[in-house]
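Hi again,

Forgot to attach this to my earlier email, sorry! This is the prediction with adenosine monophosphate bound. I've pasted everything inline since the attachment limit keeps bouncing my files.
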Amino acid sequence: METIRQPRVMREIAIKEKKNGKSIGFVPTMGALHEGHMSLVRTARAENDIVVASIFVNPTQFSPGEDFACYPRSLSDDLEKLEGLADFVFLPEKENMYPPDFSTRVEVEGLSENMCGRFRPGHFRGVATVVLKLFNMVQPSRAYFGQKDYQQSAVIKKLVRDLDLTLEVLVCPTVRESDGLALSSRNSYLQPEERNAAPALYRALQSGAKALKDGQRDAGLVGGIMRQSLSEEPLVRQVQYIAAFDADTLEELEIIKKNSVVLAGAVIVGTTRLIDNLLVNDLK
Ligand code: AMP
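Structure tokens for the complex follow:
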């Protein structure tokens, strides 16, 4: 496994591998790697000749007052986890990604605005911009994202389509703890009693999915069931949103007419923001 810091070097290696007919699977991350990240890396390993994982805590996707400064960083553990699975670990420096005169932003309109976009202004602009830069540096044949960040994967798929990028975006299932909590680097912020309370979000989404499967098609009522479920956990300090959304447009639904719906929510437990979602398919 080789560690690369310079974007120029990363791109030269990628172009050479592609010229030799090798496919490149790419897993962009912010580090503090857990089984969720590793499931993406293993899928990339199985489906490509070359695997590149990047670790970059991207400042432009954090709003002022968010957790950029204290975001968990564990580079030596991360490298140990990637050893034997990734061929290259790309660790760009902030200064190389964003030189002082950097002034271009990528805005995926529509999909970026609802759900988390309402509570994290500019977040998806930061994500789309850095991911497009990383794609240009790594030249992937396939890029792997987690369903846990459903809106992010929708934004990236749209970016690839709108800008005619020639790579495939693959979305892998959410990896969870045994009590249902979606793995997240931010779970390390949770105090023990908050950690016990955190699966409330998954339980709420499951109660919504059950209502849908039982035939409920009034999205307002499904939302009510999920909010009621969350209200049973006092350590859920704030519910930013929890609702049913169109799985393609991410618009909040009133009446559920399609056979595929995403139930998604964002809550604050203690001081930690948690997100999760369930894709409910095959609704009759
Ligand atoms: P992050 O380091 O949080 O930017 O995440 C990097 C990638 O890992 C993103 O595509 C995430 O969606 C994905 N990911 C994070 N947590 C999970 C999880 N629990 N299951 C599957 N994928 C995940």
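The radius of gyration is 19 Å. The longest strand covers residues 236-246.

That should be everything now.

G.
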